[in-house]
Amino acid sequence: MDSRFSKQPQRRRALCLAIGLLLAGSAPAVLAQNAAPSSNATINLIRLMVKKGLITQADADGLIAEANAEAEQARKTQASSAVAANDGVQPGDVRVPYVPQSVRNEIREQVKQEVIAQARSEHWAQPDALPEWLDRIAWSGDLRVRDEGRYFSRGNSPYFIDYAALNRGGPFDVNQIGRGVNPPIANTQQNRPNILSIQAHLGVDVKLGDTVTAGVRIGSGNDNNPVSTTQALGGGLAKKNLWLDRAWLRWQPVEWGAIVAGRFANPFFVTDLIYSPELNFDGIAGQGHWKLGSDIDGFVNGGLFPVQYAGNDTPSQAFGYQKNRSDQKWLSAVQLGAHWKIDEDMQWSAALAYYYYDKMRGRLSEPCPIYTGINFCSTDADAPQYMQKGNSVFLLRNIVPDPASPGNYAQPQLVGLAYDYHLLNLASQFDFAVGSTPVRVQADYVRNMAYHEKEAFKRYPDGLGQPVNNYEAASSPTETGAYKSGAVGWLLRGILGNPSPMKAHDWNVAFGYKYLQPDAVLDGLTDPNFHLGGTNAKGFIVSADYGIAERTWLSARYFNAKQVFGPPLSIDVVQLEINSKF
Predict the structure, then answer these.
(1) How far apart are the C-alpha atoms of 388 and 183, rounded to whole Å?
(2) What are 231-273's pLDDT values in tens digits?
(3) pTM value?
(4) DSSP 3-state assignment of 576?
(5) Cβ(233)–Cβ(199) below 8 Å
């Protein structure tokens, strides 16, 4: 028989025997009858425990000394009372001295810890050891229940075309506007209080080897948008959707660097100025870190991320050269930064990043004879696959008038982005403490280096391709003022208390101000809570968190935001939440 299987039961029997001897009142007498080296059963038990490696010799010497003293005292007491009383001891019985409760407790605790440690290492939970792969799996998850109220100023302009909805349901025939048929119109004046929602994630990370880890996470969500996994409740009490939120492989061949590929969490040091906190990235990213000094750690993040590309057969009705070229839209990014640990309670982190979105700007199509019955134009694939609101957009299709009715013909349109987005970003975070209270200050600045306002009006002839939004206040759908946009955004926030409350009575309060001009960043990737998503917004953010139990906390947030340029659009958002993480 394999020695591994013969030794393990013996060791377990010895440990169980020791525990049984401590818990059973008659056990010391039995041991004393069988043990020859000493007439004191306690000493024999202690020596046996040393032999089995359950306690050290130094601990045993102390216990033996105490046991001898107790035994001597017991013998004196027994001798003085032997004449006075007959205790019924029969011939052949062995008298065992009293073991003090403190000694018994100490021995019991030491044996218990040894047994627990051995049980964990040898998987005593079942007759055969548990599968080795269980030690390589780590589960995680979170759950949130939220009540949200959305409050719109009655002074807001009602004339906001929802261009994101136009693209989703489009193309829309803009010629019908003159006949009283409206394109999708955004709600700007009717409040939406008490929207109850949930958010849930469940993920598993698996260590495949010394250098490779894989992860998969599923999440809730109303749809497949990239910036939120919030799922509205209601809907006739129908069941809710689950989505593949993350799926990635991470290879770390060296201690100072790693590569991750698939769909994974944002790999960059950021705030919520540019990207939604819930945004995940598709593609491949590399991360590295190194020591710059005794208290300074440098880091670098970079990667390539596909944002959008047309399907292989797009458009489906086109022949040969009419199919869309492989004009893939990618994000390439690099970030350099450092963490400086100034002292035990003070750290400063800063990073400079460049996010280069390639070919995000839309192109005016070739002359497109829709009147012939075709349902596509050459640049339809330039329409963003996901938008919120704020970015300058223009009509993509250069539609040829119908010769049979040149003054009244169908003009089904999609919209594309009026600018490219090459973002220079500087993010900073300063952590310190006031007494025992943590404090965090965040500052973030971004500028779109590809923004040049005049290009939006000179790029195409005859006024085609000019922006159709972000004009100054209008008193009617047909009146517009001067075009207004910009390329700058910034955020400043202070947090007092624990930024991540995970225990009962952990707390924080935060106050911040955010400012995003229309074309500072891609509106489709921003936080969907502030101004209900997008750009062309400025305002305050106030929040508070309080831990009510381990890994469970309450949150309250208030977003007060309005437009930077253009017609008035003020939106207040109030959120009350209970959150848990496991």
Answers:
(1) 16
(2) 999 999 999 999 999 999 999 999 999 999 999 999 999 999 9
(3) 0.78
(4) strand
(5) no
